[in-house]
Amino acid sequence: MLKLLFSPIRLATGWGISPRILGWIGVCTLVLLRVTIGWHFFSEGIDKYRAGNWSAAPFFANAKGPFASHYRGMVWDAEGTLRLDRDRLLTEWARFRDQVTSHYGFDDAQTREAQRNFASAADQYDYVMELNQNEVEEFQLGRERIEQLDQDATRSGVSSLGGQRETIRKERQALIRPVLAQIDSISESYERCQTALAKAKQREGIPAKIMRLPPTNVMDTSIMDEVVPYFDMAIGWCLILGLFTPAASLAAAGFLGSVFLSQYPPTTGPSSSMYQLIEGLACLVLAGTAAGRFAGLDFFIHLITRKVARPQGAVSK
What we know:
It is globular, with a radius of gyration of 26 Å. Helix 3 packs antiparallel against helix 11 (221-241), helix 3 packs across helix 13 and helix 11 packs across helix 12. Helices cover 69% and strands 0% of the residues. With 317 residues, it is mostly helical. The chain has two domains: 2-53 and 221-309, no CATH class; 77-196, no CATH class.
């Protein structure tokens, strides 16, 4: 039973009795590789966290290659589904108004002012939609054209016709981008106006949460923007300390592999995704050699799990 319970931990630190025997030079370079990659992940995570407004959306929005449609679909509200839907957006604004009112304990006057802010934001939204009615309608028509092209099997094998779909997509994005930017500006202004109603005494303690519009897909950039900085820092610490190195290395390799595929085939230059591919393969080396057992915490964890999980009477090898 103990052997079964400790199997996940043994797998996370390297299953074999001992890593492949390496010379001192090999061991030192492996530790150096592990710590270097770990520091890279940790520093990337810290930079994203400190930036505050870091987002994966621009990166995935410019995805290319055979998996481009998948990665573009991970961009939050890429098609403006939420922001162009008046009822859904106003529902989220109303929810934020109620959250701020409850959090700060607004009095009647502040509550009425919060409602006026909500009504003002709604009026601004209607004005923007009316002003850009032609652009919105053309954007919607472009969506129908792309759907028709996707259903036309004869176009998928012709590069020139397939490129027509990409041209329409870029034209649609250029058309709707200014409209969505205006809506985002209204949302940001609305948030500032609502939180600004709180008096100095009411602001004591934990501030109200920033308004977050809901995800538009199961996994989109609104979720990734929250998770990735902590993911990077966690992977970084695991590799630096040599803690659960195989599991952390495989997670890092999967992450870097996803980045590589989103920009496939890679181009040359500083922005090439070949760098992610090379580092991802290096992570596989760390996972395959159980590198955390060299000058890492995995060495001690593996010894403990082997001792606890070893059947009574078994001879240690």
